[in-house]
Amino acid sequence: MKVPSGLPDWIFVPAAVGGLFVVLPLFAMLASVDWTRFFELVTSESSLAALELSLRTAAASTALCILLGVPMAAVLSRSSFRGLDVLRSLVLLPLVLPPVVGGIALLYTFGRKGLIGQHLEVAGIHIAFTTTAVVLAQTFVALPFLVVSLEGSLRTAGRRYEHAAATLGASPTTVFRRVTLPLVLPGLVSGSVLAFARALGEFGATLTFAGSLQGVTRTLPLEIYLQRETDADAAVALSLVLVVVAVVIVVGSRGWASRAAL
User: Fold this and answer.
1) Residue 7 has what pLDDT?
2) Most buried in the list 34, 102, 121, 250, measured by CB within 10 Å?
3) What confidence category does residue 133 fall into, taking pLDDT thresholds of 50, 70 and 90?
4) What is the pTM of this model?
């Protein structure tokens, strides 16, 4: 028996158009793949190196996002002080900044003559145009995704259980570790997946701040861009690999998050 949605019939038309707008280009790309050379294209030395680097740096940047983003989301959702709205706006700024602008900002911060980079250079620490620069660029653009997701979960969860634990004598650290984090675990997982997916697809900030050195800073999106200029079939095949990896991660994590919420 069909369960009424409670929605007006007309609303399904633009919803379907929006769905097609997202899905149709993916099917068009799928239809243009040269399946006779697919395995050869995606297993070339440069392709495998780019994929391995992308997965490694995206995992590192996601870990950094969790390390920094969880405290940030907690402060934004649980604190109240003057300038909080301004702070939230600044934290979320990378969501609306063009990635290349983020790359330039990072370059002028951690580059050889940057605000911090010039002091690091004296100590013999080089960041720009290294794998570390890739991780920092990915973290810069991905961090807001985790913060937004987790802050929403923290606000939805409320504070009654935290107040109850504090009343029973638990320290703030114990409350946060034993009560708050388990309550928002699905939101943390969703935010981490969004951050990983955004880091995996990062292009502009990486190219500007880290460059494109094979095996060092050339991630899969950069490899796809370069292949597009010389071998369109390889670019399409690698794009499909990136889409499949992203879909597997998102679908798998959503299932895990749903089970964690039960």
Assistant:
1) 81
2) 102
3) very high
4) 0.88
Lookup: tokens for 137: 């660029």
C-alpha 87/C-alpha 93 separation (Å) is: 10
3-state SS, residue 13: helix
The alpha-helical segments, DSSP class H, found in the chain are 12-31, 38-42, 45-78, 84-92, 99-110, 117-122, 131-157, 160-167, 172-175, 181-183, 185-200, 204-210, 220-230, 232-261
Phi–psi pair at 233, nearest 5 degrees = -65, -40
At a CB cut-off of 8 Å and minimum separation 6, what does 85 contact?
Answer: none
Spell out the domain ranges in the chain.
Answer: 35-261
Cβ burial of 205 (10 Å; 0-12, 13-18, 19+) is: buried
Among 245, 256, 202, 71, which Cα is nearest to 146's? 71
Q: What kind of architecture, by CATH, is found in domain 35-261?
A: Orthogonal Bundle (1.10)
Nearest CA to 189 out of 252, 262, 247 is that of 252
Sequence-ordered alpha helix ranges (H) in 171-231: 172-175, 181-183, 185-200, 204-210, 220-230
Rounded to 5°, angle at Cα 201 from 200 and 203: 120
Cβ neighbours of 132 (radius 10 Å): 17
- Judge contact between 55 and 223, C-beta under 8 A: no
Burial class (CB in 10 A: 0-12, 13-18, 19+), 59: middle
Handedness of CA 172, 177, 178, 183 (dihedral sign): positive
Rounded to the nearest 10 degrees, what angle do helices 99-110 and 131-157 cross at?
120
Q: Is 116 in a helix, a strand, or coil? A: coil
Query: Among all chains, which residue has been given the structure tokens 């697809």?
Result: 201
